[in-house]
Write the C-alpha cells for this entry.
Amino acid sequence: MTVRTYDPKNVVLTVGGAPISGYADGTFITVSRQNDSFVSVSGADGETARAKQNDKRGDLTLTLLQTSLSNDILSGIAVLDETSNAGVVPVILKDLSGATTYFSGSGWIKKPADSEFAKEVGNREWALELADMEVFIGGVAI
C-alpha cells in the first residue's frame, strides 16, 4: 500500500510573478470557478441538451498573517491598479506535491484586505478575481 503525503509548504502561489508567503493557520487559499462549465435543459419528452459555458472566471481568496511581507506585495498591486489600471497580473497556484495547477494570465485584487488590530497577531484576507482561469485538479504524487 502506498502512503501519499500532502505538505502545505509545497503549495506555491505567485501573483504578478511575486511568490506569496506568510499564510495564516488553517485554510489559507480557496479557489473556485464562478460558473459551471456546462448548463443543461430538458425538454417535455425528457430529451436533454447542454450548452458549453466559455466563462472561465474564477475567484481566489488567500489568508495571510498580519505580519506577512506578502501583504506589501498585494497592497502594491492594488494601489497600482487603482491609480493607473496596471494591476492586472498573472496568477499561478501549484501544488508541487502533485499535479494540481490553477493559472490565469489576467488576475486582479478586488479590494484591499480588511484589517483588524488586536492583542494577538491577526489575519489579512485578500480576494482576487481571475479572468481566464485554467484548472487541473490532480492527486498527490509523493
